[in-house]
Amino acid sequence: FLAVARLAADLDRPLGGGDISRELLGRLPKLVGWRVIDRCVALGLLERRGDRGPAALTESGAAALEQGAVLVPEEGTWRFFFVDDPLIDDALVHVAPIETPNAKNERDDLYAAKREKRNRPSRGDRVPALLGKAAGSGYVWISVASAKPFEVREVAKRGLAGEPGHLRLVVEWEQEQPEPRLTLRGELEPRLTLRGELEAVAKDRKPWRVDRVLGTPRAFEDVTYDELWTQLVASSTGLPAGELEKWRGRAGTCVLPVAFDGLPVAARRSMRQDLSVPQVELDGLGCFEPTELHALALVPRKPSDAQSWAEWLQWDRLSNYVVPAALDVTARKIAALFPFHEPRLPVADELLRRAKARPQDPRARFLLAPADLGLWRSP
Question: Which helix (H) or strand (E) covers residue 34, if one does?
């Protein structure tokens, strides 16, 4: 059947029985070729205008070629798995056949319930609108558990709802990536409890493991990395989104304005910091669990923060004996770290006075020793 679909795609026209016989069946009678076409029409791979005649490739047939598999209809009792999340475009994520009692057992149970005056089973629940809409749509889904394609041709009017389960949707977006990466992970439970009383078990009794990368959802089509970053940072820090956008415009990239006081030593030195983001609800994207943004670039929020930060860095970088000329070079490098402010760094003699006022400071000796040796010559 896949070969028939390939032939229809290659010829790019409706196929007749002669085409099938000549190209695929070693010139068997045309009648055999027409029977193959009838079967392909029944499977949805081909379609014809009337009841008879040549048939052309359908969208389902083209999809079968892309997937390398032909879907064969099968009747039975099935369990459908849906994911309710705005970032999941194809909410129907898996389907599995389940074992149910045969007709005789169900009839015997009904008779027994009548004799024992037990309540008869309910007629079931209405089919969810999503599943009803999916039936007969011609759309082909890909299972997130088995990676196998499936299509819903027809469903009953009623069914039974099972207990909800949980999967984890992980969204990762690096600044250099044009689109986010979505991964669905977890397990789907084959054992199905219905209303806390009945139980049905899928033919495969082991949980289905899910670890599947999804395509970019429609919800992200109009969202940029910078916009999402701004929403998350604003929700975590309480900073106005407008202020973050203003800083992004000045810096040309996403930066976090911070106050110098209370900033950890590691963040002061690297000018980067991880940020914990609490649970947040984002318009059109759903609810995100607490997460963390890594290595955010920091800038002083105010000129006073820049001044204190620059002075702190200048003193913190004293790690060896220095003379005024070396201090001047370091001062220029530190000032360059604050392109959006103009901090005034202490000159060499001011640093020496600070060292003399605090001789017990471990870094003071890097200035006091050269001065005592007569090496202190200010320009």
Answer: helix 30-43
